[in-house]
Design goal:
The chain has 99 residues and is α+β, with helices and mostly antiparallel strands. The protein has one domain (19-91): Orthogonal Bundle (Arc Repressor Mutant, subunit A), CATH 1.10.10. It is 40% helix and 14% strand. The longest helix is centred in the middle third of the chain and has 13 residues, at 59-71. It is rod-shaped, with a radius of gyration of 26 Å. The termini are far apart.
Length: 99
């Protein structure tokens, strides 16, 4: 038992060699959703699927941010297009930098 205690004490007191850290490239700064919409769809309506193709965010995060822009910030409006039976989105006049 004494031998095991001594071995554990020696192991606990030894320092571990430092691991070689691999330098990884920094992540690209992700554009805010409003900026993505302003750059990609400045004067046209778009669907949620079109927006998903232009964003790297997950479905739920993207949905929550988009509806935040609609309900809270009033930067985006949404409407149902009966001819295509799809929900479309469009920038409001005060959120559109080209107006």
């Amino acid at each position: 038992m004494d031998r095991i205690r001594i071995e554990r004490a020696v192991i606990a007191n030894t320092t571990k060699p430092e691991k070689n850290k691999i330098k990884r490239p920094k992540k690209m700064v992700e554009l805010k959703l409003l900026e993505v919409i302003q750059q990609t769809f400045p004067d046209q309506s778009f669907t949620f699927d079109q927006l998903r193709q232009k964003s790297t965010k997950g479905y739920e995060v993207l949905r929550d941010e988009l509806y935040g822009l609609i309900e809270t910030d009033k930067k985006v409006i949404h409407q149902f297009d009966p001819s295509t039976e799809t929900l479309t989105f469009r920038l409001t006049a005060d959120a559109n930098p080209t107006n």
